[in-house]
């Protein structure tokens, strides 16, 4: 397993407390990567997961307070994402029986949930904050970010705005193609490529 990217200013949301917390989460992610590249005892993984779990709960609360203070329009959706991450962490801590299960799930949570969440969703907070427009115009800027989804139609990609992307990927909303009636599926590129 490769190490995860290290913190850089390109991940900043220009809020010092949140940026410092994100830096700590990046450090914990790299600590996890190093731990998972060697023989490891189950107790070591559980200790790291507990450290992540405790820190993420504090961070998510602070981030939600910050989003509320700037009237971020996707606060409820963002809270739902946070809740889903915490729920998965809780299940992981309580239900994984083998060291390999723990390793696999820890990698999944760190790479997909945590780092993807910071890069893909927390960066949208900064786009919102930096815009000097009225609230509705700001919302349009955030929604201009387009995500590709596929269905059963051959050689066709649905272009989905940020709001619908969140609903499908994180809130379990079901959207179907009007032509083939198949469920839309996120056609994400390798998340680690976006982080480099």
TrEMBL record:
InterPro entries: Haemerythrin_Fe_BS, Hemerythrin, Hemerythrin-like, Hemerythrin-like_sf, Hemerythrin_metal-bd. The keyword Transport applies. Keywords: Iron, Metal-binding, Oxygen transport, Transport. Residues 17-122 form the Hemerythrin-like domain. It comes from the Bacteria. Transmembrane segments: none annotated. SUPFAM superfamilies: Hemerythrin-like (SSF47188). Pfam families: Hemerythrin (PF01814). GO terms for molecular function: metal ion binding; oxygen carrier activity. Belongs to the hemerythrin family. This is Hemerythrin family non-heme iron protein. The lineage of its organism: Bacteria, Pseudomonadati, Campylobacterota, Epsilonproteobacteria, Campylobacterales.
